[in-house]
Amino acid sequence: MAVSIPGLSISILRQQTSVQAGLPLLISGRFTAFGLGVPAYIRVFLEGPTYDPQVRSFDTFASPFSGDYTVNVIAEKDGQYNVYAQAFPPPILPTGPPLPDPVLLLPPMAESTRPPLVVGIPFEGGIQAWLPDGTRQSLPVPPQEPIEFKPVITVGAPAVVVTFPSAAAPAAGIPYYPFPEAPGVSAPPRVPALARAVIDNFLFIPPEINPGQQASGVMTWRNTGDASTLFDTIFYLVAPTGESYGPLQTNQNISAHPQVPNTLNVRLGTQGLPSGYYAVVAEVYDSATGALIAARTLSARLLIREILGPVPPTPPTVPPPVVPVAPTRGELGMPSLNLPTQINVGDTWSGSVSLPTFGAAPIYTEARLLLRGPAGQEFNVAQGGKTLQPFEILQIPVNYNTTGFSAVNYTILLGVFDQMGYPIAEFPMGFLSMLEVMPEFALPPPGLPPEFALPPLPTPPTPPSLPVKYYISEVSNSPMGTGGVTFVQPSERQSEYDEGDTVVILAVPRPGYRFVGWLLDGVLYSTDNPLSLTIQPPLAPLVAHSIIATYLPEALILPPPLTVPYPGGE
């Protein structure tokens, strides 16, 4: 408790009524005796915050000429405070550098009023105070109180001493007001200053990097102690799953002056770290003792991007080949005959036969034009077959030599067969009359008896049936430029074959491609390489066929090959 001595008074003035935590605030005032300034030992107290009351003291001297004093106070937490000053007689023992704090003080002679003070982040009309539980509280700024104030005359710079939570000596090199040393009393040992630090923020520039790149950032921090101190720093990165990586950087013996904002450049290696958002952990240690004095975890400060590998191209969608089906009798229309119905023996019977279809899906249709004699013998005049689209008409050309035929009437028939050669329908198309033409010299001259006529010409023998011809008009590869084909048997490519011939073809893919299969008339026939093809039904004679070798790039993963064979294939 302060001793109230009549005629002695001490005043106090805050230069500001609000301040941010960790920033110094100037407190000034005057100690007078009967209206005259006198020297005194002044101790200014900072009491608060209200939710955790503590008292810190800051010491200085009043001028011997005017009684004026000034001192800086520092609040380390947000909240509401009270400030007040007490005046003491000069200490018996001298104080100030290099001597310790005064230890023998008489009771205070006067005490000032207790004006309020708020600490926090300022905004219009008040401040935002951060409470220990992480919440914010809005506090109004107290009004400035008027006080009589004259120019300050200070003998020696004031020394600021923090006595809570522990005493600390004034900073070295700061002058103090000299007092005569009491004889025969030795100075107590000096107590080292307590190291303190606050980490304000940490930013990465840029905040997003690719995997393996170096992360560059800046940490802002302050020495909140009372003297210049050497510090050590350590930095870690924490993954979103909680794994800690580090220490990734260590700095030692960093000198920092009290209450001066400092920046520290940080470069952290991220080699081998998975992608995601990372928190940064910064720790500050006292270099002299190795004690941890400040640590802060700042979440989601760095993003390591996820770099995707090259996306392989989507293989082209190859629609499955349409397998033609055998037509039914109801899907066949009435054929039309575009041929003469009467010719002379030995003439060429020329024209065509048309067969309309009405299927809803592709159908494979083979038709044969026959001549049937009176004795039941049949002659294959023409044939043709292919896969017909819906409502497509099958055209069969006819160019048949009738040399050696008998001069009789023949029945015209059109037979329709499926892929395996089984009959589906037979259409009668009328009759073909073959006439025999007698040479003029074979007739008897007019007026001569018949016995003088020339003998008739002998009937020529029936000519043997000609071999059926098959045609392969195209042998190629697909896509173009991915490979080639080589004829093994025969050694050279030819387009005309007899029934029973065997064709052996080898597919030769280019580097980077793989052989897939053979397409016969656009339908997958075989995946063997080389291909051995026997020229026989169900291959249609007198029709141009195509054989194509197909390839795909090696890098593509192909589905299992289709097992739908070509009609008659293995």
Report a brief summary of the structure.
By secondary structure, the chain is an all-beta fold. It contains no helices and 38 strands.
Q: Can you walk through the features of this model?
A:
- The strands form nine sheets. Strands 3, 6, 7, 9, 10 and 11 form a six-stranded mixed beta sheet that branches. Strands 1, 2, 4, 5 and 8 form a five-stranded antiparallel beta sheet that branches. A five-stranded mixed beta sheet has the order 16-22-21-18-19, with no helix packed on it.
- The termini are far apart.
- It has no helices and 38 strands.
- It folds into four domains: 1-191, Immunoglobulin-like, CATH 2.60.40.10; 197-304, Immunoglobulin-like; 329-435, Immunoglobulin-like; 469-553.
- With 570 residues, the protein is mainly beta.
Give a quick account of the main beta sheet: strands, pairing sense, barrel closure.
6 strands, mixed
Distance between the termini: 115 Å
Task: Give the overall form.
Answer: rod-shaped
- The value of Rg in angstroms is 57 Å
The CATH topology of the largest domain turns out to be Immunoglobulin-like
